[in-house]
Request: fold
Amino acid sequence: MDIDVNQMRDHEIRLHGLNRADGAYTLYYDETNNYRLVRITEDGLNAPEAKCFVLGGIAHSGPPRELPFLALRESLRLQPSVRELKLVHLGKGDILKLLDSAKVGVFLKWLEQERLFLHYQALDPIYWSIVDIVDSIVAEAGQFQLTAMAWELKDALNTLTRANLSSVITLFRSCDYPNVGAANRPRFLDALIGLFEPRQRLLPDFHFRMLIGLLHLGKKLEALPFLNGEEPRLLIAHYRHFYAARLCILKHAHHILDVEDVVSRELATWRFMDGASQLQHFRFVASHDEIGIQISDPIVGLLGKLCAFAIEQDKEHLIDARQSLNGRQLTNLATMARLINRSIDENRVFANYVMAISDQRKLWAFLGEDTGWA
Reply:
């Protein structure tokens, strides 16, 4: 299959103002929480926790170069038997426990001293699975006001879905979501409204009324385009398009990816075409043979746990957690924030979130950034 790199990247560059997408970098990749697919089962989801998927790692300017890994190994005091660096060698537990690890601090300071960038794409699988409800109604209605409010509507939908997750998944199962179809649509939307109304206090009144109004509007439309003709009960079929997006947008970069059986097989059948020329700008390498991928493992692990923490905690608990951090935790969190900010300052392509707006605000608030949210 041929992929028109420029058609895909030009849209993203215009949409998000990515003015440094032509930069020449080397990016190393690893991933965390890749469930291959997310499906509704008789008991809920095949991935019950459905943690945040993160694809990313480290990056630097220019072509591939040698990284001073031996010095890092010595600083971390890794045993000679440790063949590959993994997050588990730095610490265990949730993000709060990891931030209290001295080895995590050593690792983050080393990244900072080596002037390495972080790059990542963070995907909340629940959020990604439900936004077609809003997108279908907005697309079919064709009303400017709804289009302008689409992100806030998706955020409101996510908040109320998370508050009723088991009940929403049960409803999805009964309606073969995302293949709801015309016959099931009124019952589906009425049931969502019924689940959401008791949770009205979780949203600002205006946002709640807009979301409920949107769902009522959906019952009157002729079709919901993204909720027809889909495979029943399959929420996420694959993650390959997230890999492809990075390869298209950063077409002048070298991309070195950890071997992932399914994705590597699929991408091997794709030709990334830059006009009439086929790009040869990525390769898959076993992590034990590539230092950059090994260094990327703890990064995506930390980012995955950080994003999961922001998604799972409400605002009050997150504020309390930040105020309760000890000195080491605050220092490590500040280093992590500097690394993220420096990377975004270098290139906005390096950080991409497919997460609810409120969860992104919580993440930045926990990092200590002024988002205007707290």
